[in-house]
Sequence to fold (571 residues):
Amino acid sequence: MKLLPHEHARLVEQAIAAAHKAGELPPFETPTIEIRPPKKAEQGDYACAIAMQLAKPTGKNPFDIATIIAKYLPPAEFIGSVEVLKPGFINFRLNETWLKSQVENIVNEGEQVFALDLGKGKRAQVEFVSANPTGPLHVGRSRGAMVGDTIARILEASGYSVEREYYFNNAGVQMVNLGNSLKIRYLAALNLPVQVPDEKDKSFYQGDYLKDFAADLVLEKADSLKDADWKPFKEYAENRMFDIVKATLKRVNIQHDVFFNENSLYESEAVWETLAALEKAGHIYESTVRENADAEELEKAKNFAPAKWFRSTTFGDEEDRVLVKSDGLPTYTLPDIAYHINKIKRGFDLMVNILGADHGSQYKVVQYGLQALGYDPSKIHVVIVQLVRMIRDGVETKMSTRRGDYDTLDDLIDQTSPDVVRYILLARSADSHLNFDLDLAVKQSNDNPVYYIQNAYVRCAGIFREAEARGLTDEGADLSLLGEAEQRFIRKALELGEIIELSAKTLEPHRIAFYAHELAGVFHPVYDEVRALHGDVPPELGKARLRFYRAAQVVFKRVLTLMGMTAPERM
Fold:
């Protein structure tokens, strides 16, 4: 399928070259040619304002420039007419015969309609979720899950070979705390004397899931672990929790290709090799405080043991960062730098990290670390995902009182549906805060955007069930019989390729969600107006309209799949 903005831009570029050759335009360096819909729909389908940019280098009036370019435009089957408007716009209208013929092209391309070659021959990695295995997935992480998986789908549609990765830490203090927490629950389940910490103890995991784990562990091991340290409990909890996390993600149609264990960076010595390389390059210093600290900081730190600092200010950071604390343990930054070196060495052409808002500065320090070691961080792109608030009756609410002081993704799925969760968590720019309206999410009406979009597909499916029952076919349809209403939808459907390309380039998957809602908004009035199976519809016209609905069904299926949602046959 053609991406019409590119096709129009190519024609304008050819026209400018022809005008140069004919001597009607002087030589100049042609700027990027942008093709966009005009502000007013009645002015055409696409518009080009290049003439305004060329006024200065040519010394000509923009209207005259646009007229010259229009004169030299080569013919193209998709262009119906060209009009030049003051002060210098070139407006294009699509050829209606060509437009109607796109129905057949859409049907023939099927599930791969608007597959692009933007990333052809390239490898992309999308790292997302990456929650440590200390508890069930909460809603905050869930938004990043939907954003990350949809970006992966968009990149695949753009031609990339995509690898989905989950990075987790099973080696730090929090995992020790997890093991100790389960041990306490296990001893309590055995009715052995043990003090269960209260909520003030931040090192103790309060979630009731650990009570469930402890009960199962008693059934499996009896009291054989009563004298063990935290390690077997940590291993048991980690494995159980990852099974839960994977099962939860599967409910919303997410599966990772790689689970990367942070501990492997220690086992391979990659963390300490990274530190050594930074030290050798002169980017590390050992001190109780950062360099150039003021007197107050020096006074506060005089009794501290020295830490190892990264001179990140050399690369534009606001302050230097500690890589190894005074107790000899690394901060999160050091293994993160080692991890990204590992990514780069794996040969990806594009690496996308989906991170929470609390990692806003952390990723920049990692990029500084890569730069310090001579690596190119430009292939690493970070998408920051802002917070989610659950709203019911206009008031922020907690969804789970049983599992601890957070809302779980499973809770959210149970109260709504996987498709609702995916769409609503996707349908806003990731860098904006999101309110998840639970009352709206459960509505079975067009007020619910998920219902509104899926119902378009359902309506198409219903038409074809009825057509099959009547023995009707849409093969060999005369598409010239299609009317203005159908063409209105086809025009919108042809924008999908542009949306996929823009979403891939900007890593902004909410654009697909916006487009899906707009597409449904164009479709439903057409459905109400354009009947294919009514008795007063001539057979040939009915067949053409059936073919049109076949194409509409294909496009909605593609859009829903890009968002990781189902295309239900009935609702």
